[in-house]
């Protein structure tokens, strides 16, 4: 009889532990949709990120629950770069598209760093730099290309604090460069 009670106790305990594990797993669910599926639905293709030759940095650095994304720019997966000064060599719309490409590059870096983009709790801060001359004033409209991608992908969690500034030059004459801070949950 003791063995029977012990078996019942053991089965009940195991079942309770499984239910508790399911509850814990459910609390990790941050979205009511799959972020990576949304990326596919938006027609966004992520590619393994590449560090430009000669750089000795990390594309992402994780500290606790924050991921710091290094400055990134509009370089396609096949190496084609969007270059020039916005407002002089490029239109604001071309700058906007360059910023969109930069956001997609950052999504690729972030995915490689954390494995699953459903772990993103929020996009905390974005610093967008636009390659332009001193008379250019439409920095926010250019960097909106970056912000729009993050909001399309992460919804309200993609809304962030942001600075959009002009620079007299950027590496490789890129049209823009963006760095970002992302909060994640494992």
TrEMBL record:
Residues 80-182 form the Endoribonuclease L-PSP/chorismate mutase-like domain. InterPro entries: Endoribo_LPSP/chorism_mut-like (IPR013813), RutC-like_sf (IPR035959). PROSITE patterns: PROKAR_LIPOPROTEIN (PS51257). It comes from the Bacteria. This is Endoribonuclease L-PSP/chorismate mutase-like domain-containing protein.
């Amino acid at each position: 009889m003791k063995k029977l009670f012990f078996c019942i106790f053991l089965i009940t305990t195991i079942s309770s532990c499984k239910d508790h594990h399911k509850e814990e797993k459910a609390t990790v669910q941050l979205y009511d949709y799959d972020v990576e599926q949304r990326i596919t639905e938006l027609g966004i293709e992520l590619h393994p990120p590449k560090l430009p030759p000669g750089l000795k940095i990390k594309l992402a650095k994780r500290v606790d629950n924050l991921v710091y994304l290094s400055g990134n720019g509009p370089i396609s997966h096949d190496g084609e770069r969007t270059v020039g000064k916005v407002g002089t060599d490029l239109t604001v719309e071309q700058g906007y598209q360059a910023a969109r490409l930069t956001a997609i590059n950052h999504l690729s870096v972030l995915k490689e760093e954390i494995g699953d983009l459903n772990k993103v709790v929020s996009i905390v801060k974005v610093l967008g730099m636009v390659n332009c001359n001193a008379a250019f004033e439409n920095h926010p409209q250019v960097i909106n290309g970056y912000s729009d991608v993050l909001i399309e992908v992460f919804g309200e969690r993609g809304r962030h604090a942001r600075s959009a500034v002009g620079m007299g030059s950027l590496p490789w004459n890129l049209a823009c460069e963006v760095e970002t801070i992302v909060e994640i949950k494992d």
